[in-house]
Each structure stands twice: as structure tokens, then as C-alpha cells.
Design a protein that fits this description.
heterodimer; A: alpha/beta; TIM Barrel; Alpha-Beta Plaits; 2 domains; 22 strands; B: alpha/beta; Fumarate Reductase Iron-sulfur Protein, Chain B, domain 2; FAD/NAD(P)-binding domain; 5-stranded parallel beta sheet; globular; binds flavin mononucleotide; iron (chain A); iron-sulfur cluster binding (chain A); dihydrouracil dehydrogenase (NAD(+)) (chain A); metal ion binding (chain A); metal-binding (chain A)
Chain lengths: 434, 436
């Protein structure tokens, strides 16, 4: 059995599956149950300043996007940070950490961008025995209106500043949690690194309106006829999160900065993909909120089963393995030529490939009598849309043309050597290949 | 109290409540959530094979997508535009031979999209509403006679009325509906659906029904042609084929359609007498309907005796399996040669290719489902035993159209009759408005 133990910033946990800072980690009762269910660690629900806690709305705080069988595909929330008193949370964190010394317990913190505020809270957190802190620079609603959360995450200089304060004020490792509500995530990541962050975690939720009630024309969730944008999470956000993770993992300035991956992780496979893109561990929120804590069983078994199959003894054997393969468009090999191939034995004759190609793409599929669908090699640009719309797995595949064969569409012989846009004759700023 | 073993033809072989339960909806309707899940399985095929397979060419992928997007009533309208009896067709079509048989998922997985049930979901949601979904065009002043209030006639009448023509439907029986009302197994159309559907259809306006009016009795074709701008014949097949074997006049022997008709009209099915040993002779849907319903009434043994092999049987494999699942025994390659008894039937002798001696079956009730034929002579050219038609139902006589089971070329399905009636109506409309 593969060893799932992870060491993230020196914080050891029996597996890489942590619960993200959110309702599942908002109190001792939940976290104890989560640890009993087998989660490797938790990031406690974000703590705020001492004093009267924030308040939440008293109407619905979630909106959802469903598949046909009401499978939850995306979740949106307008919840704020913890609405329980700081001292209660601290007391509970201390008790939990004492009873579960082998699990990771991270305190998520969000206080105003004032040095004093951080100086006050950090010693209190340290006193709980927490393994580290996560700076919540991501919450996109409510708190951001008060100059915190994503308002900080969108201002790299503020990120750098509070990170630096924390690094000066505490011995605990500092993780900076980033917001995806920004044009280029590398800016905030570089700022975190410049401030001395030990790691970044991402993504927090994405600004969103999940639906509009067409009877009363209010966005949902609706509070007395009005709505506000919430934060989107769950399976739907995974592709966005993974791209942001990859951008940080391969950026020259932030390469090597530890990353805790978050966003839509629902299965072991999602986790493995994030880790292949450079995440030392992962955090899960929506999947646990949808199915309960027990899903970690599937995640652990799935990951270790796959690792056994591949011969990986520990997670560090595959963390980051996909990073070198993420590149810029301009470096993609333009001499790599493929054509769609339809397996007639698997084809069920639905014609979706035909409709997609004929109506919206390159008219490269012929419909022949008897509903036989065939690729026209002289028109196929290898776009892959037919593969994506085909309901039968592996019925349509893309096959590579060997070097030396003729691409019927271009009439050109496929070349064996790698060549990309930077040297392409159509590129006005092409450099001659050396 | 009689029971399954009581000999002869007796009512109440089972507890009346059990019989009522037996005749409940064969396929209960889908709930809204089930419909969403079922609709999600549709691939929205290009030039979809299910549409090609539907005699009324309903745009099936479109209506299923309308259900999936939360517009079941619009879905119903999409169906009704092509097939005004889409509600009945959803219940009685042999979908396994038509749309669902052609569904790519049937071919791929043996599990088609549940088109029939989805169609029912959509049509039910329209019919549950007040009012009729279509609006009649301004009156044209033209008057068309429709003979026969079955699926062909009612579909024709509706389409003509929608175009603004005045329609009189002449129906021989006490109620309109044709086979939907008097034929077809009761468990396929519960809660008086056939009658409700006709009432709903009449909501278009402009249609008058005269019951008890039969062509060849108090009506002649010449009078109808004389008194109307056009005539549509949707007569159905009123005659039943006789069994060419001695003894077929014995008590206990009757056409299956008569048995089914009594069943359909009975308020309380338990009052219907049924034999202990029932033999149904035939291999079509009527034979299956008669056999299954005999069993549901409590007959101890029901045998469906067909003269050819299973593959040749007109009833679909699905219908055959339904019969078997209800306890009907299917016997193939047997031809009846003699019905025996002393006034009342007691046994039937069959020949079987592998048996020298006749095969004997005990029977106190014999239901003949060996086909119906066109009754009467309308004075129209025939093709075989049916009225010859060209194109959309034109007969040999000007101003006279025909469709449904009485016309040549059909396949004796409700849905085909609807298509015939609709297409004839369009042609009648074109001819009435041509040049004008
Ligand atoms: C109801 C709810 C409350 C959340 N509260 C916090 C929070 O207090 N602090 C925080 O850093 N992230 C918070 N998040 C964001 C999650 O930690 C996580 O970053 C996000 O949901 C993406 O992960 P997922 O797709 O697995 O849910 C919250 C998410 C949800 C759904």
C-alpha cells in the first residue's frame, strides 16, 4: 500500500486530504467527526478579530447548479467568516489539536490590514498549538466590502505587507490563500512569496450569480427579493483552479513555492491531478458539504490504489510531474498532425459528431447512407470537437499522422521535427531557427 | 363464490379489488423529476432515427429537450402539432417497434430513451390544463363529413376544424373513439382516457358528433358526398374474420374484439364472465390484449395459440413477453382444425407440424383474434380487401378520402391512422381552398 503521508511545510498529516476553511471546519464538533472519518487535516473556518463576531444573513446563503439528476455541479455562497466568538473557536481548536496530534490543524485568519490587528491575534492562535496559519485573501463577498478578503487578494502590495507582518510575528508557517477573482494570479502569488510566505493555497471562490428567479427577477440566493454575487465552488470550478495552480507552479518567480490545491476536488482523481500540477496537498470543501465526511474514504483508497498501480511509493513521487508539460501556446508543436478516426463498430449513429462538425466547425464529417459517419481527412483540422460531443467513450479518437505521410488537408508532408509558432513563416516576429 | 378453478364462464374469479388492481395503469406516469432524468438520456441525435420511425414524425428530440428545460407543456404542443392523439399514442404505440426501437441507445445499450413515457408526461401536462391548446382559424363556410370517430376520423376532424372548416363526425357506435374506446387493453388506457381525450380534442370547436349513424345503414356515401364539400372515411374494420373450422359456432367461442369491447365498457371488470381455460387464437396485438386480460380477470389457464413461429408473430417481442409475464402460455405452430363440445366448447383440436395426432387443448372459452376486415361495400375501388388510396388518402371517388385501418397500405396502428387522418385533412383543405 502506497504511503499517503504528506509533509507540507514541515506539517505532517497522514494523508494529503485537508478540509478547506468553510462550514465543515467551523467548530469542534465537525472537526472531531472529520478527523474520526479520516481527514488528514483541516483549515479551521476563518477567524476574525476579537470582539462582536460578524453576522450572517438569516435567509438562504447558497445557490446551486445541478445536472439532470440533481447532481450538484456548482455551489455558490454568501457566507462570511466564522460568526462565532474568537475565544470559543480558539478554545475548541486547542482541544481538538490536543486530542488529534497527528492531524494538521491550520488556522485561517482574516483581520484588517493593520499591523496591530495581526499583532493581537497571532499569539492567541499560536497558543492553541495550531500547525500553521492561512491568510484568507480570498473571500469575495461581504468581507471584501470591508477591505478584507478578496479586496486584499486583489492588491499584491497588501498581500505582501500582511504576509511580511505574519512572518515577523509568528513562528508558524504562513500559507496565503489566493482569490481567483483577478486577471493574472501570478501577481498575488509573487507578492505572497516576496512577503515571505511559506506557501500559497488556491482557489477561494469565484464571483458568481448562479441563477435568476424569472418570476420576481431576483438573483439567487434571494434575500427578501434581492441578491448579491456569491462565491462559486464545487466541480464546476476545478478547471479554473487547476490553471491557476499551474500558472504559479511554472512561473519562474514562484516555481517551487509550495501550493495547497483547492477548487472542485471531489474524487481521488481530481486530487491526483492537482498534485501532478504541483500541489503538495489538497483541500476540499464542496464535496464534503455535498456528500459528508465519508468521501475521504474513496479519496484515500483511490489515490493509494492508483499509486500502487503506478508504482509510486509516496506522494512526492508524482507531485509536480505534470508541471514541465504545461507550456505556452507558442511552444506547441505545429508539426504534430492528427486526424479524427471513428470506430464504426462502436458508433451508435447518433450523428452528434456530424451536427457539430457540419453546423459549427469544418464540415469534415460525411454522413453516408445508413447513417454511416466518416471523417474527411482533407477537411479535418483535428479540432477534437467530435470527440468531445460523442456520447461513446473511445468511439472517436485522434490519431497522429506519421512523419512522411501527407496531410490531405494541407497537401503537405508531415515533418518529424518539432516546430512551433516562434519560427513559423506566418509569424511576423518569427526568429529564424538556429 | 367462484374461483380460478370453477368450470365454465363465470364472473368474479378473483376478488373485485384484486381485479381492479390488475387493471391499473401498465406504466405509471413519470414524476417530474423522473421525467428530467429520463429526458437527460436523449442525445438530441442529428436527423434522429426516432423521428423517422414515428408514423406521425413527431420531433422527438425537440420535445424531450423542452421537457429537460422545464417546458413540458410546450413539449406537449410540439407533439400535438404532429399528432393530436399524442396522449393515446404515448400509451398504446408499440414504441419498441417504432421510436424506441430506433433509438440509438436501444441499439447501443438495449436501453432506449423512454420516449413513450416522456410523451405521456408532456401530453398529460397539456391536457391537465384548462382549455385547448390550439386556436381555430376563421370559419371557411365549408363542411366536411367524417365517417368514423376513431383515431383516423378524429385526427382528420381536428385538423379540418383547426383550418376553419365545419365538420360532422358520423359514428356508428354510441361513443366516439373507435378502437381507442372499444379496442386496446384496458390497462393501457385507464381512467376513461379515450373518452377524455375525445372531449379535449373537441375543444377546438367546429366539430359535431352524431353517434348511432352508420354508413350502409342510415347513411349512404352518395348522400354524404351530395351534402358536404368533402367526405373522409375512417371506418376501421368492422367485420371479423371467421374461423374456418367446425364447431366455431359453439357457446363460448367469440371474436376477441367483442370480448375486449365488453371489458372496456364494463364499469366493474369483476362482473365479466371469463373461462377457466381460455384459448386465444391469433398472434397480433388483439390476441395479446385478449389473452392478458383474460388472465387478469382470473382465468386459471390462458393459452395464446398462433399458427406460425414466434418470429412471424405480429405482436412485438415486448408484447409477447408482457403476456408471458402475466402467465399467458404462448404456443406456436398450431392451427385449429376443430372446436369440440356439446353445445358449449370443451376442447380444441390443433395440428402441429411435429405431431401426427391432433394436439388437444381444454377450453371453455375461445377468443378468435384472426383479423378484422372492412365491413360493407362503399362502392369504392379496393386494393385487396381494403379501400384503395393514392397519396394522402384519395379514393377512386372525387371528394372522398379514406384513411386508417379501412384504407390500403396501413399497418393497423393508432399512430398510423392519426397520420392518415391528418394528411388527408391537409389534402382536403388544399383542395377546398385551391383557386379560391
Ligand atoms: C459556505 C462556504 C463558506 C466558505 N467560507 C470560507 C472561509 O471562511 N474562509 C475561506 O478561506 N474560504 C471559505 N470558503 C472557500 C472554500 O474554503 C474553498 O476555497 C472553496 O469552496 C473552493 O473549494 P471547493 O470547490 O472544494 O468547495 C467557503 C466556501 C463555502 C462553500
Amino acid at each position: 500500500m502506497a504511503d499517503l503521508t504528506t509533509d507540507f511545510l514541515g506539517i505532517r498529516s497522514p494523508n494529503p486530504f485537508w478540509l478547506a476553511s468553510a462550514p465543515p471546519t467551523d467548530k469542534e464538533y465537525n472537526v472531531r467527526r472529520a478527523f474520526d472519518a479520516g481527514w488528514g487535516g483541516v483549515v479551521w473556518k476563518t477567524l476574525g478579530e476579537e470582539g462582536p463576531p460578524v453576522v450572517n444573513v438569516n435567509g438562504p446563503r447558497y445557490g446551486a447548479i445541478y445536472g439532470a439528476d440533481r447532481r450538484l455541479l456548482g455551489l455558490n455562497n454568501i457566507e462570511l467568516i466564522t460568526d462565532r466568538p474568537l475565544e470559543v473557536n480558539l478554545r475548541e481548536m486547542k482541544a481538538v489539536k490536543r486530542d488529534y496530534p497527528d492531524r494538521a490543524l491550520i488556522a485561517s485568519i482574516m483581520v484588517p490590514c493593520e499591523e496591530e490587528a495581526w499583532r493581537k491575534i497571532l499569539p492567541l492562535v499560536e497558543e492553541t498549538g495550531a500547525d500553521g496559519i492561512e491568510l484568507n485573501c480570498g473571500c469575495p463577498h461581504g468581507m471584501s466590502e470591508r477591505g478584507m478578503g478578496s479586496a486584499v487578494g486583489q492588491a499584491p502590495d497588501l498581500i505582501e505587507m500582511i504576509t511580511r507582518w505574519c512572518k515577523q510575528m509568528t513562528r508558524m508557517p504562513v500559507i496565503v490563500k489566493l482569490t481567483p477573482n483577478i486577471t493574472d494570479v501570478r501577481g498575488p502569488a509573487r507578492a505572497a512569496k516576496a512577503g515571505g510566505a511559506d506557501a500559497v493555497s488556491l482557489i477561494n471562490t469565484i464571483n458568481s450569480i448562479t441563477s435568476v428567479d424569472l418570476d420576481n427577477f431576483s438573483p439567487q440566493p434571494t434575500i427578501d427579493g434581492k441578491g448579491t454575487h456569491g462565491g462559486y465552488c464545487g466541480p464546476a470550478v476545478k478547471p479554473i483552479a487547476m490553471n491557476m495552480v499551474a500558472e504559479i507552479a511554472r512561473d519562474a518567480e514562484t516555481h517551487g513555492l509550495p501550493i495547497s490545491g483547492i477548487g472542485g476536488i471531489t474524487t481521488w482523481r481530481d486530487a491526483a491531478e492537482f498534485m501532478a500540477l504541483g500541489c503538495g496537498n489538497v483541500q476540499v470543501c464542496t464535496a464534503a458539504m455535498t456528500y459528508g465526511f465519508k468521501i475521504v474514504d474513496e479519496m484515500k483508497r483511490g489515490l493509494s490504489g492508483w499509486m500502487d498501480e503506478k508504482g509510486y511509493a509516496s506522494v512526492s513521487d508524482f507531485v509536480g510531474r505534470a508541471v514541465p508539460n504545461v507550456t505556452d501556446w507558442q511552444y506547441l508543436n505545429l508539426n504534430y498532425v492528427t486526424k479524427a478516426r471513428i470506430d464504426q463498430d462502436l458508433c451508435i449513429k447518433c450523428g452528434r459528431c456530424y451536427a457539430a462538425c457540419e453546423d459549427t466547425s469544418h464540415q469534415a464529417i460525411a454522413m453516408k447512407p445508413g447513417r454511416v459517419f466518416e471523417v474527411k481527412d482533407d477537411e479535418c483540422v483535428a479540432c477534437n470537437l467530435c470527440v468531445d460531443v460523442c456520447p461513446v467513450e473511445d468511439c472517436i479518437t485522434m490519431t497522429e499522422l506519421d512523419a512522411g505521410t501527407v496531410d490531405e488537408r494541407t497537401g503537405r508532408v508531415v515533418e518529424g521535427e518539432y516546430a512551433n509558432w516562434t519560427t513559423h513563416p506566418n509569424n511576423p516576429s518569427a526568429q529564424a531557427a538556429e | 363464490m367462484p374461483n380460478a378453478m370453477t368450470p365454465g364462464l363465470v364472473p368474479e374469479r378473483l376478488d373485485p379489488q384484486e381485479i381492479r388492481d390488475n387493471f391499473a395503469d401498465l406504466h405509471p406516469p413519470l414524476s417530474e423529476h423522473q421525467a428530467h432524468v429520463a429526458a437527460d438520456r436523449c442525445y438530441f441525435c442529428y436527423d434522429a432515427p426516432c423521428v423517422t420511425a414515428c408514423p406521425t414524425a413527431i420531433d422527438i428530440p425537440l420535445f424531450i429537450r423542452q421537457i429537460a428545460t422545464g417546458r413540458p407543456e410546450d413539449a406537449g404542443r410540439t407533439i400535438f402539432e404532429q399528432n393530436i392523439l399524442g396522449g393515446m399514442c404515448a400509451r398504446v404505440c408499440p414504441t419498441e417497434n417504432l421510436c424506441e426501437g430506433a433509438c440509438v441507445r436501444e441499439i447501443a445499450e438495449g436501453e432506449p430513451v423512454q420516449i413513450g413515457l416522456l410523451q405521456r408526461h408532456a401530453t398529460d401536462s397539456v391536457m391537465a390544463r384548462q382549455g385547448h391548446p390550439f386556436v381555430r382559424s376563421a370559419p371557411t363556410g365549408r363542411h366536411v363529413a367524417v365517417v368514423g370517430g376513431g383515431p383516423a376520423g378524429m385526427a382528420c376532424a381536428h385538423r379540418l376544424a383547426m383550418k376553419g372548416h365545419e365538420v360532422t363526425v358520423y359514428e356508428a357506435r354510441p361513443k366516439p373513439g373507435g378502437l381507442n374506446e372499444y379496442g386496446i387493453a384496458a390497462y393501457k388506457t385507464v381512467d376513461d382516457f379515450a373518452a377524455r381525450e375525445v372531449d379535449w380534442l373537441l375543444g377546438i370547436g367546429g366539430i359535431t358528433i352524431e353517434t348511432g349513424r352508420a354508413l350502409g345503414e342510415d347513411l349512404t356515401l352518395a348522400e354524404l358526398v351530395e351534402g358536404h364539400d368533402a367526405v373522409f372515411l375512417g371506418l376501421g374494420l368492422g367485420g371479423v374474420n371467421a374461423l374456418n373450422a367446425p364447431g366455431s359456432d359453439m357457446t363460448g367461442v367469440e371474436p376477441a374484439v367483442h370480448f375486449i369491447e365488453r371489458l372496456r365498457q364494463a364499469e366493474e371488470k369483476a362482473t365479466l364472465p371469463v373461462g377457466r381455460n381460455v384459448v386465444v387464437i391469433g398472434g397480433g396485438m388483439t390476441a395479446v390484449d385478449a389473452a392478458v386480460q383474460s388472465k387478469l380477470l382470473g382465468a386459471a389457464s390462458v393459452t395464446l395459440a398462433y399458427r406460425k413461429g414466434r418470429e412471424a408473430m405480429p405482436a412485438s417481442r415486448w408484447e409477447q413477453d408482457l403476456a408471458a409475464s402475466k402467465g399467458v402460455q404462448l404456443v406456436f405452430d398450431v392451427s385449429p382444425v376443430e372446436i369440440r363440445g356439446n353445445g358449449a366448447v370443451t376442447e380444441i383440436a390443433f395440428t402441429h407440424p411435429e405431431s401426427e395426432a391432433p394436439v388437444l387443448m381444454q377450453a371453455d372459452q375461445v377468443l378468435l383474434a384472426i383479423g378484422q376486415r372492412l365491413a360493407g361495400d362503399q362502392g369504392l375501388a379496393r386494393e385487396g380487401a381494403k379501400i384503395a388510396v393514392t397519396g394522402p388518402g384519395r379514393t377512386s371517388l372525387e371528394k372522398v378520402w379514406a384513411g386508417g385501418d379501412c384504407a390500403a397500405g396501413g399497418d393497423d396502428l393508432t399512430v398510423t391512422a392519426v397520420a392518415n387522418g391528418r394528411d388527408a385533412a391537409e389534402d382536403i383543405h388544399a383542395s377546398l381552398t385551391a383557386g379560391g
